[in-house]
């Protein structure tokens, strides 16, 4: 198998899985229990929180564990709007956010909120000036991702944060595709709320985190119950997932510089190996080291993904076709129809090899040679 879909999810390294196994089979106590096994589990929860927070350059008390990025995004938005309920009911975001954001905003519109979505140019870029010009006196929240998950374009979160300093409008960023793949800290970003996820960096699925700081007061509780997570997200803690998240963070943090260089080299090599494929174009001006969006105009992306998948090569359809519709990201970029319909995404991780990329490039070249283009 040649896995090239690291932006979708990542393999869990054996050392991380071993940490989780130990928690599941030995250190399995309920963190709320008062006997030694429970207290050890409580210590494990807090050690995990400290590890993830440290990688973000935050204090442990500023980090709340969630079940995933989607939960973190929804919680961040709702908590920010609750805090700023007297500021107004206007939200600024981008037209290329993850569906966890866009679907939440769509629901909020049904509740009386007004949403302004800033559109990118054909290269996928959005400027700070575009975002700031959309802000009004009644803007309660700006939510913009750090790195787009389809084209790898990095957005100017820091510039927007600097402009909002001293103003009531809160800033949230979904930093899931950037965390430990690009150097930044909570302070350098300047966002009031930051969403993270474990399974994008070699951790398990089912665990994420929400950072709160800056102008953000204590978030409104997500749930009500037994008082876990400082009473803000009650429920028995998934200690194995937390420990796995922390173990993955420690590994990635220790090797981050080398990992970034490796992923960037993989991306450059993929461009080099596919440069001679007739008609192939790069989609967007992404700078993330681990994401590369390409299009073979006239060749439907789903056909490419299926064909390569049968050969054990795992990539994704950048168009994310659903019932014949193109991805909202490509639609917002206003690309030519054939370019959008032929878009695929390849993404890299620390484990990616040249052999993986060679297999992909050769298979894509063969697909073009052996398949008739869509007219």
Could you explain how this protein is built, in words?
- The protein is α/β, with parallel strands linked by helices and 375 residues long.
- The chain has two domains: 2-9 and 255-370, Aspartate Aminotransferase, domain 1, CATH 3.90.1150.10; 14-253, Aspartate Aminotransferase, domain 2.
- The chain contains 13 helices and 13 strands.
- The chain has helices at residues 14-25, 36-56, 69-83, 99-110, 128-133, 157-164, 186-189, 239-254, 256-274, 301-310, 328-332, 337-341, 354-370, and strands spanning 2-3, 63-66, 90-94, 114-118, 139-143, 170-174, 193-197, 208-212, 281-282, 291-295, 313-314, 316-317, 343-347.
- The strands form three sheets. The chain has a seven-stranded mixed beta sheet, sandwiched between helices. It has a four-stranded antiparallel beta sheet with strand order 9-10-13-12.
- A hairpin with an 8-residue loop joins strand 9 and strand 10.
- Helix 3 (69-83) packs parallel to helix 4.
Provide a compact summary of the structure.
The protein has 13 helices and 13 strands. It has 375 residues and is α/β, with parallel strands linked by helices. The protein has two domains: 124 residues, Aspartate Aminotransferase, domain 1 (Alpha-Beta Complex); 240 residues, Aspartate Aminotransferase, domain 2.
State mean pLDDT (0 to 100 scale). Answer: 96
Uncertain segments are none
Distance separating the two termini:
32 Å
Percent helix, as a range, is 40-55%
What would the principal axes of the Cα set say about the shape? globular
- The beta-strand count equals 13
CATH superfamily of the largest domain: Type I PLP-dependent aspartate aminotransferase-like (Major domain)
Helix-strand pattern, N to C? EHHEHEHEHEHEHEEHHEEHEEHHEH
CATH architecture of the largest domain: 3-Layer(aba) Sandwich
